[in-house]
Amino acid sequence: MLHSNLSRHVRNLASATAIALAIAACGGNDSLEPLKTLDGSVPLVVAHRGASGYLPEETLEAYTLAIDMGADVIEPDLISTKDGVLIARHDPNLDTSTNVSTKPEFASRKKTTTVDGETQTGWFASDFTLAEIKTLGGIITSDATRPKQFDGLYKVVTFQEIVDLAIAKSKEKGRTIAVYPETKNPTYHRELGLPLEDKLIDIIVKTGWNTKTSPIYVQSFEPGSLKLMRSKGLNVRLIQLIDADDYDLKTGKLTYAAPFDRPYDWFKSGDKRLFSDMVTPAGLAEIKTYADGIGPWKPYIVPVKWELTAAGAAVDKNGDGKTDLTDAVSQAPTTLVADAHKAGLLVHPYTFRNEKRRLTFDMAGDPANEYLQFFRIGVDGMFSDFPDTAFAARAKYLKETGR
Ligand code: G3P
Ligand code: CA
């Protein structure tokens, strides 16, 4: 069933190249209002960990499906193996995204350690060679409702393999597929003696991609990692990620609890500022000194909030007997996109997902509404677990702008 759905998606999107060409052609039409993106170009569909809503994330299969679904960009998170190879996994703890716990030969490597100050038990990539990690299979993460029948079937991949895929697929599709690597837990890796940055720079330089217009964006939550790479001569577009711990749906304000209150390198250096300090005009100006854009969590752009009764209780808008995000309502957008653009920064918010439990009441159960909301504000792209939905919503948005 899933396979037939996926092949239908792919058939429906077989014209992605033609649409891309049509968009490019429309770009030259002077009668059209320019898009509200930083440079007026079409906002990017960034496949977050590949088509991770459908297949085990950060595998070649998930990236290939994302590209077939129309994604412009594929996103890997980078961590290091014991032998210093950059691989695509969201967490150094392999238990969260692979079947390592089912492998008796690795049972003795289970341990408890800390990652960015958080105590974790599991199997850690820094204790495994690439050859050993290649014996594991990726598993679906995030939502219990996502398909599990592909768990264990697809291998963990190296960053080099992802670059090679993007280059091959760009040729095959006749359109440029960019990559968007994130240095994951860079301070943690440096302390392990397995720093990420030099290896990432090496691959970028060897690929011939060390320019501002190359099909690559490099992202990190830690400013120090981005600044280090810039100081070492990395010229590609750098994106500062901006997190928070959670939202308070009563007030609509974001909350800041460790370890998601500030970048881990700020914590280590005693810098008391929070992620919220990055979205002020001064914070954006500082980011502009070392980066080309920001990747904020969505509610920095569209806050979400419950309606409250006179007694201050949350209104159960959808009448399902409980109150959660699906009862909340989008608030007026902040000025973040405009402020960032004024500072000359791209804005790529994260993460867009299809599951109904992740959509506010005013989205009426349709994820396309959320994409449209953000496109209309003028974001330069977004990270999505469901690139087919993002692609379709973008086509709708471009149509409403006359393209
Ligand atoms: O990289 C953009 C966004 O995905 C950041 O969140 O936790 O998925 O890396 P995370
Ligand atoms: Ca990421």
Explain what the structure shows.
The structure is a single chain. The protein is of the alpha/beta class. It folds into 2 domains: 52-235, TIM Barrel, CATH 3.20.20; 240-403, no CATH class. It starts with a helix and ends with a helix. A hairpin with a 5-residue loop joins strand 3 (77-80) and strand 4. Mean pLDDT is 94; it is low at 1-5, 7-15 and 21-27. The chain is built from 13 helices and 17 strands. Helix content is 30%, strand content 15%. The strands form 6 sheets. Strands 7-2-1-17 form a 4-stranded parallel beta sheet, covered by helices on one side. Strands 9-10-13-16 form a 4-stranded parallel beta sheet, covered by helices on one side. Strands 4-3-8 form a 3-stranded mixed beta sheet, covered by helices on one side. The chain has helices at residues 2-12, 16-26, 60-68, 130-133, 159-173, 186-191, 197-207, 223-231, 264-269, 281-288, 336-342, 367-377, 387-400; strands at residues 44-48, 73-75, 77-80, 86-88, 111-115, 118-122, 178-179, 182-183, 217-220, 237-242, 246-248, 253-255, 293-296, 304-305, 329-330, 346-347, 381-384. The longest helix is centred in the middle third of the chain and has 15 residues, at 159-173. The structure holds SN-glycerol-3-phosphate (G3P) and calcium ion.
CATH classification, class level of the largest domain: Alpha Beta
Please state the second-level CATH architecture of the largest domain.
Alpha-Beta Barrel
Rg value = 21 Å
Q: Please indicate the percent range of residues in DSSP E strands (runs of 2 or more).
A: 5-15%
> By helix and strand content, what is the structural category?
alpha/beta
Heterogens? SN-glycerol-3-phosphate, calcium ion
Helix count equals 13
Could you tell me how far the N terminus lies from the C terminus, measured between alpha carbons in angstroms? 34 Å
DSSP summary, beta strand count:
17
CATH superfamily grouping of the largest domain: Phosphatidylinositol (PI) phosphodiesterase
The spatial strand order of the largest sheet comes to: 7-2-1-17
Number of domains: 2
Mean pLDDT: 94
Sketch the topology as an H/E string, one letter per element.
Answer: HHEHEEEEEHHEEHHEHEEEHHEEEHEHEH
Runs in which pLDDT lies below 50 for 5 or more consecutive residues are 1-5, 7-15, 21-27
Helix content: 25-40%
Task: Note the main sheet.
Answer: 4 strands, parallel
